[in-house]
Amino acid sequence: MSDRVDATATLREDLMANVPQKNYSSLAIDVAEIKVALRIWQRIAAGLGGFAVVAGLGALGWCYNLGVKVGKLEQADHEHGIDIVAQLQSPASTEQLETNLIAVTAQIETAKVEGKLPDQSKVRPLSSVLSGVLKNNPDMPRAWNAATQLVNYRFQPSGKDLSSLPDCLNLPLMGSRAEVEGPPGPDGIPTHSPPTGPVIVRKLGAMVVAQNCRLDLDDNGEFASSTAARDFEDAKRHKPEINYFVLEVSNAYITYKGGKLIPVNEIRFKNCSFEIRPTFDIPDRRQQEITKQLLEAKNNEGAIRLPVGT
User: Fold this and answer.
1) Which of the chain's ends, N or C, has fewer CB atoms near its CB within 10 Å?
2) CB 172 within 8 A of CB 227
3) Residue 234 in contact with residue 197, Cβ under 8 Å?
């Protein structure tokens, strides 16, 4: 039995190494959807009786055979996926690293289809190791794709209706203040405080606060006429030396599709969800910076510094 499992795992690794990532991810989604369908059929079977049972035997037999095949694939997944974090940290070769990255992406896709919430005790170490993979392999498309998929899964939105959320940039002003950025504290994060005298540091920032809204980081040309832009302009009129703009959002749904960024230097977020457009190529610098910072964010609170003007 062990020899069969080993052979299956080896065959699957060979398959993963040669099948394009896009095709393999699609296969993983199909398998996950089949598993969900199997569960539905099992519930139906439990409620069938008499003639209905006979009529359903053919379909249930097909489901059983398919379930056996899915189970074998899951077993191979289990054998391959043992201690995936350690395997990503110390791969035997570049090919093995790419195989492990495909496995990570497939597992994330499966979890999403099955509706499994992220287990932070597993997601955080995986985020950390993927951050290291990106630093060591910045020209590996599969590494960027796996990182983007993990970010989207880790910060996935709740079940609420996202289409009904108002635009964060056009909400009435909730709060605005100027602040001075000081040197980093013990945790390495720069300190911020209200300006009380002459500015002796490089950055004097203005902040606008919003919550319970949606925010698109792509600049579609409408930012200049938004409420947030007017608030920033008002702050700069009072303090012309302001040169740094911060948008603080909470309970927001934040998206980025890969276009030109809105002219905001920093997004501070709390209890927000993110959806970054996945790519099967190496993303440009803008998406790279956003992805890396979200990978390194602690829990569901942090900040993204945007490469403004790109």
Assistant:
1) N
2) yes
3) no
Task: Point out which residues pair with 144 in neighbouring strands.
Answer: none
In a domain, 310, yes or no: no
Last residue of some domain: 154, 184, 215? 154
Max CA distance (Å), the chain:
86
Distance CA 89, CA 102 (A): 15
Q: In angstroms, rounded to a whole number, what is the distance separating the alpha carbons of residues 292 and 134?
A: 8
Residues with Cβ within 8 Å of 91's Cβ and at least 6 positions away in sequence, in order, are: 97, 100
pTM of the model: 0.69
- 93: its two tokens: 């070769």
Tokens of residue 125, six digits: 């170490």
The C-alpha R_g of the chain, in whole angstroms, comes to 24
Do 144 and 177 lie in one domain? The reply is: no
- Render pLDDT for 111-155 as a digit per residue (tens, 0 to 9): 888 889 998 888 999 999 999 999 999 999 999 999 999 999 999
